[in-house]
Amino acid sequence: MRSVRFCNPGEIKLENTPVPRAGPGELVAKCIVTLTCGTDVKMYKRGHRLIQPPQIIGHEFAGVVTEVGEGVKKFVTGMNIVSANSAPCNKCFYCSNGQPNLCDHLDECLIGFSWPGSYAEYVRIPERIVRQNTFEIPDNVPLEHVASLEPLACVVHGWDLVRSQPGGTVIVIGGGPIGLLHLQLAGLSGAKRVILCDIVDQRLEEAKKMGIDITTINSTLEDPAKLVADFTGGRGADIVIEAVGRKETWEMASRLVRKGGTLLLFGGCQRGTTVTFDADNIHYGELHLQGAFHHTPSAVERAFNLIVTKRVLIGPLISEEMPLEKAEDALKLMGEGKALKIALRPT
Ligand SMILES: [Zn+2]
Ligand SMILES: [Zn+2]
Question: What is the C-alpha to C-alpha distance for residues 165 and 90, in angstroms, rounded to an integer?
Answer without folding.
Answer: 31
